[in-house]
Amino acid sequence: MKKTYKVGVIGATGMVGQRFLTLLCAHPWFQVEVVAASPRSAGKPYCDAVGKKWCMETEIPESVRDKIVMDATGDVEKIASMVDFVFCAVDMKKDEIKALEERYAKAECPVVSNNSAHRHTPDVPMVIPELNADHIRVIPAQRARLGTKRGFVAVKSNCSLQSYVPALYPLDGKFGVKDVLVCTYQAISGAGKTFETWPEMVDNVIPFIGGEEEKSELEPLKIWGHIEDGVIVPADSPKFTAQCLRVPVSNGHMGAVFVRFENKPTKEEILSVWKDFKGRAQELELPSAPKQFLHYFTEDNMPQTKLNRMLENGMAISIGRLREDTQYDYKFVCLSHNTLRGAAGGAVLLAELLCAEGYMD
Ligand SMILES: NC(=O)c1ccc[n+]([C@@H]2O[C@H](COP(=O)([O-])OP(=O)(O)OC[C@H]3O[C@@H](n4cnc5c(N)ncnc54)[C@H](OP(=O)(O)O)[C@@H]3O)[C@@H](O)[C@H]2O)c1
Question: Which Pfam families would you find in this protein's record (predicted)?
Fold first, then answer.
């Protein structure tokens, strides 16, 4: 792999785009060369284009403040010639995003995407680097379909499932996870909002997030899937059922999980699997990988969204309240930061994996 990679952020003025910039400004391998957004922002210095939409806890990084925003759709070839790969998080129609990401890939510019558009394209890997890192081996088949040498699209999964899938996946290998019921309690930043831009969410809960329950039930099956004949074949188990609620929290998605196993483990066995679990991201010591991916809290009132979402820079999963259930085998709660682990941070970690495994050279 190279020592440093030049990267572009497509959708840099959006909420996830801003997160990318705050993570990348101090990154040991990646250097932001291009910021791009809609034609509305193109041609303006980044600080003017983002203006009052800047909503990170820290200031706009000096290295991008004065960069002239490029046109994400009009300047594809130019951007592709300036960078080693791009991160993409844009608010456009699904078919437009699909086409845009393939245009970058066909211009020999790999795309690491936050968008959902390509999550179910069979030869596009959807990766949580600790769990299914081996799915990136489908990339040569995708390159063959696209007719590219370097270009490809890789995606991260939806933010809602990044709390419960990491907790369940390592248990499945040992005890066979059969049925999962999950209720998620999701932060407003997941909708690209703050309390200033969505005042109706103060003191409120909304029992509907468009498309979220389908994603929460279906996407885990692709993560559990395997590569066969150049595509990822989704698994047909475990079975998931989900209800997703929007709650008045700025950042952090919590899940309340009920699980039934093929072979019911003891509580101690579950805790020991979580404690010892390490994935490819930890083996490779990737810069954004948490040292301990799964943290178990023994206190009855933990984890809490406000207290624990930033655990290991917002990249670790917090779990608590594991106990036996009267209808399922066990129940527990889990928490992850939706715009760090669940969005920009998860994509940066995926890009690190792709670099370390030689897919970005
Ligand atoms: N927020 C989350 O926690 C989260 C988590 C996971 C995935 N995602 C996904 O990430 C993507 C971005 O989400 P977000 O919350 O960051 O959205 P957002 O705050 O609304 O930002 C959207 C970005 O897309 C750009 N854009 C809009 N129309 C465009 C066009 N026609 N051509 C090129 N660029 C265009 C915007 O540029 P302008 O500023 O110039 O309009 C802006 O940079 C979405 O697909 C979302 O589903 C979000």
Answer: Semialdhyde_dh, Semialdhyde_dhC
**Threshold 0.85, pTM exceeds:** yes
Give me the amino acid identity at 190: G
- Ligand 1 center to 277 CA (angstroms): 33
Report helix, strand or coil for 28: coil
Number of domains present in the structure of the chain: 2
- Expressed in angstroms and rounded, the spacing between residue 17 Cα and the centre of ligand 1 is 7
170 in any annotated domain: yes
What range does the domain containing 57 cover? 5-158+343-356
Q: Which CATH number is 254's domain given?
A: 3.30.360.10
Confidence of residue 143 (pLDDT cuts 50, 70, 90): very high
Tell me: the pLDDT tens digits for 48-104?
999 999 999 899 999 999 999 999 999 999 999 999 999 999 999 999 999 999 999
Instruction: List, chain by chain if needed, residues with CB within 6 Å of any ligand 1 atom.
Output: 11-17, 37-38, 40-41, 72-73, 89-92, 114-116, 159, 189-190, 192, 338-339, 342-343
Known catalytic residue at 253: yes
Q: Give the pLDDT mean for 302-331.
A: 98
Name the burial class of residue 190, with classes exposed (0-12), middle (13-18) and buried (19+) by CB atoms within 10 angstroms of its CB. Answer: buried
- Tell me, yes or no, if 159 is annotated catalytic: yes
Residue 38 CA to residue 56 CA, distance in Å, equals 20
